Protein 1
Amino acid sequence: MCAMPLIAASQSTKKIDLPPDTSALVDGVAIKKTTIDKAYGSLAAGGVKPSPEIRNEILQQLVLREVLSAEAGRRGVERKADFQSLLSETKQRLLAESLLGEFSTQNPVTDKEIVAEYERQKTSIGGESATQFKLSQIVLGSEQEARDAINRIRKGEAFDKLASAISTDPASKAKSGELGWFLPMELSPVFGNVIVNLTKGGITAAPIFFSNQWFVIRVDDTRPFKAPSLEESRPRLQSALQQQKRQKFIDDLVKKASIQIGTP
C-alpha cells in the first residue's frame, strides 16, 4: 500500500460498535475486515512481521484513502483528462497481470514436466560423470596484448599477479582473475569447448575473442559435479517451466495480433 499520513485521533474517528464484518465507516461507506485481511496477508507474505500495530496502520490508511477518494469525487477529478489517461494505463496493466495470473492457474506445471526437464538437464551436463572447472581469466583489449600475456606466463610470470596488474575486467581483477566453478554448458561455447581440453593449471594456447574483448583462461582445478536431487531442483524447475509456458502464451498472442510499429 502507498504510504499515507496516519489519522490523528479526534472525536470524529472514535471507535464505536460496528457490524462484525466492518472495521470502519467513512461517511457511511464501510471498510470491510476482508479488505484489511487481504492487505495484511500481502504484507505478511512479503516478510513483514504481523502485529496489531500493522493491522491498525492498514485500517488508518484505508480510512484516509476513502476520505481522499470521496473528496476527489466531489471535485470531479476522475473526469479530468490526465486522470482518465492514468486510469486507462492502470486498467491495461491490471488486465495483463490478471490474464497472466489466470493463465498460470489454469496451466500449472505438472510433476511429469518437472521430472522430464530434470532428466533433460541432467543429461545435458553429462549425467553422473559431469566435471566442474574452477577458472581464472585475464581480459584484454587487443589480441596482441593477450598473446603477450600468454608469453609472459609461459616464461614464468604468475597468472594471478598478471591478472591483478593488467586485466581490464574489474570484478575478476580484484580477485587476481578468479572466476569460480563452472560446468562447460554454463559458458559460451567459445569457452566451454576449450576448457574441456585443458588440465589443471593449463591455460588457453591462444587468446579467445568474445564480446569485443580478448580472454586468457586458466583452469585452476577440476572436480566431479554432483547434480542436485530432483526435490532440491523442483522449485527452480517449476518456476522456470511456468515462465516458459507464460512466455509461449505471450508469443502466440503477439503472433496472432496485427502489429505495426513506427519510430518510438
Note: The first strand starts at residue 22 and ends at 26.
Protein 2
Amino acid sequence: MNWWGIVVSFGFVFGFIGIAQVMLRAGHLSPSVTRKVVHIGVAHWWILAMIFFDRWEFAIVGPVAFIFINLASYLFRLFPAMEHEERSRNLGTIYFPIALLANVLLTWGGSIPIWMGGLGILVLGWGDGLASVVGERTKSAALRVFGNTKSIAGSATMLVASVAVALVFFLIFGDSRTAGAIAVFVLTTALVATITELVTPFGLDNITVPIVVILFAYLI
C-alpha cells in the first residue's frame, strides 16, 4: 500500500496542477484563482495519505519531492497555473510542501494523531485559499499587521472555513464529548488558525497555520 500511495500521491497532485493549467490556458480562470484551485485541491492529499501510508518514510516522499518541484517551478515558471504574477509573492508554493513535511513528521513520525495533521492542512487549504479569493474580490476594510495587509472579509472567510473544517474533522475523528465541548474545540481552533494567519509575517502562514493548528488541537 505504501508504494501505491506514492504513485497515487504524484498522480493526484499533478492531476490538480494539470486541470488548473488547462483552465488557465482556456481563459476560464485567472492565475490568482488557479493558484487557489491547486492550493485547496492539493490539501486533500492528506486524506489519501491516511488511506495509503502507515510509515513516515513513505509519507514524506511526496512533500520532499514537491519542495524541489515547486522551487523549480518558481525559478523557471514550469507551472504558470500555480505561480503568482509577482514572483516575490509566490513563495507560498514552496512553503506549502514544507508544511506538509513538518506535519508528516509530527504525526506519522511523532505522537500526534494523524487526523490532526489533516485538520491543520485542510484548515490552511480551505481557510487561507478562500480567504485570498474573497479578500481579492471584495471591497472591505483592511488591517495592517506586521507589514501585511489583511482584509476583514478575507479574515472572516478564514474563520468560517476553519470552523467548518474543524467541525467535520472532530465529528469524524474526535472522541465523544458534549455539544458544548465540541463547540469550544471547533471555535478556539478556528480562532487560533485565523489569528495565526493574520499575524504571520513574510507570507509564512502556509507553514505556521497548519503547525500551530495541530499543536493547539493536540494540546487541548
Note: The chain has two domains: 1-111, 113-220.
Protein 3
Amino acid sequence: MNSLLEIRDLHVSIGGTEILKGVDLTIPAGEVHALMGPNGSGKSTLSYALAGHPNYEVTQGSVTFCGEDILAMRPHERAKAGIFLAFQYPHEVAGVRLQDFLRTATMAVTPGKFSLANFMDRLNDSTKALQMDKAHLTRAVNEGFSGGEKKRAEILQMLMLKPKLGILDETDSGLDIDALRIVSEGVNLLRGPDFSGLVITHYQRILNYITPDRVHVMHKGRIALSGGRELALELEAKGYDILKEEVALAG
C-alpha cells in the first residue's frame, strides 16, 4: 500500500526549546493510526507542526504528503492539499456563522464546480450523522458552544471537507460516552481508501469505536513503541510503565 504521510527524523522546537527529537512515522493511504503517550511527550506538537503552525519551528528532518514536501507550504496550502487538524481546544470565531464558514472552506478545497445544492445535501447528511442541532449552523463558529458541541463542530468540518488526512488532537477529551460514540461514528464515515487518520489520545476508549490499524507511543519527543491494536490495550492495563520495561529490555 502506498504511503500517504512520511515523516523522517523530524525535529521541532518552540521558542528555542526542542520538543520533537527525531520522529519517524509512516501512515499508508487508507489506514488510521493512533498516537498515544504521556503528557509532554510531543503529541500535540507533532499535530501543530504537520498543520504548519508558525510557532513550531522545524529544525531538521522531512515530511512528505502524497509524495510532496509540505514543510515549505503555508497552513492554508496544506489544508488545500488535504490535511485537516481537529483541535483539542477549538477556538471561537466571533461574527462568522458556522454555515458560512463551512461553505467558504468547502468551496476552497473542492476541485471543480461544487454547487450550493451539493453543499446543502452534504451539510444535511453530516449534521444528521452527528446528531447536531441545525440551529448551531446559524451561530458564530463555536461561540457559546459546550465542549462536546465544539468537538462535533470540528468533526462536522472534517466531514464537509473530506480531507485525505485527518489529525484528531485529543478529540475525545471532555466528551461523555454518548458524544464520544457519535463523534467516532462521524470519523468512521470517512474511512476508506481515500482517507487516512492520526488519532492522538491519552486513553484507549476512543479506540473502542475507531479501531486503529497501528498504534504508536510517543515518549520524550520520539516514537518509542509501535504495534497493533493490542498495544493500546496493554497501555490501558499497565499504563506508561510499559515504556520503562521496553527501555530495560533494550538495555
Note: Residues 4 and 29 are 5 Å apart (CA to CA).
